[in-house]
Amino acid sequence: MAAPGIALFGDNMAEEEWTRLENYIGYAFKDRKLLERAFVHSSADAGESYERLEFLGDAVLELTVSEHLFFEKPDFTEGEMTKSRAALVNENALVKLAREMDLSEYLTLGRGERNSGGADKPSILADVVEALIGAVYVDGGFDVARDMINRLLEGSFDTVLSGGGLGDYKTRLQEYYHKKGISDIRYAVYKEEGPPHDKVFYVKLYIAGEEISQGKGRSKKAAEQKAARQACLNVKE
């Protein structure tokens, strides 16, 4: 039984739900308690919260993105790298990623925090992304954490480094077709390859029932972004 005033949520998650999250991030924890701790908010009063993991994950995320920019964009100035990194790791970007991964489902919050909407509070959602990264780093090391970050941010890297800025190709494509009165835009995974920790997804983009483009990536999001990017280029042409 939860103590009065405490709303345990992530603690009640079924084993298969944690496994589903591990499959999504492409990493199976040796110490599952680390993964669970990444979702314990300080308001829950349920032992150590995610704050220390968040502190560590923030540093790992910043280093990984900085490293990616350094090697992938050798022509970028220090200012351009700083601007691109800010577009990739700001709160809005992390919240968007958290919502795509349904991370709010795993949160353990105090009852008051949950009742006040804490499960969808941007600051908390951004924190748990960094805490999850920190947990992966502690459990598996830097290389594993870096691979996970690069996989999860693949679509964002493609968008920002190709000049898309804070927007994304899916949004731009949707806005373009909505102006034309077309709202039937659908992405469909038609093939998956590789083991759970290193999958490649293949996606087809359909507009009004017609196949427009294809894309592939190490996450469904990345594959969709690449399909949308190709469609944007076709529209531009």
Could you explain how this protein is built, in words?
This protein is an alpha+beta fold and 237 residues long. The chain folds into two domains: 6-164, Ribonuclease iii, N-terminal Endonuclease Domain, Chain A, CATH 1.10.1520; 169-236, Double Stranded RNA Binding Domain (2-Layer Sandwich). The protein is built from eleven helices and five strands. It has helices at residues 15-25, 32-37, 51-72, 78-89, 91-100, 111-115, 122-140, 142-152, 154-164, 169-179, 220-236; strands at 6-7, 109-110, 185-193, 200-207, 210-217. The strands form two sheets. It has a three-stranded antiparallel beta sheet, with helices on one face. Strand 3 (185-193) and strand 4 form a beta hairpin. Helix 3 (51-72) packs across helix 8 (142-152). The longest helix has 22 residues, at 51-72. The model is unreliable at 1-11 (pLDDT under 50).
Concise structural overview:
The protein is α+β, with helices and mostly antiparallel strands and 237 residues long. The chain has helices at residues 15-25, 32-37, 51-72, 78-89, 91-100, 111-115, 122-140, 142-152, 154-164, 169-179, 220-236; strands at 6-7, 109-110, 185-193, 200-207, 210-217.
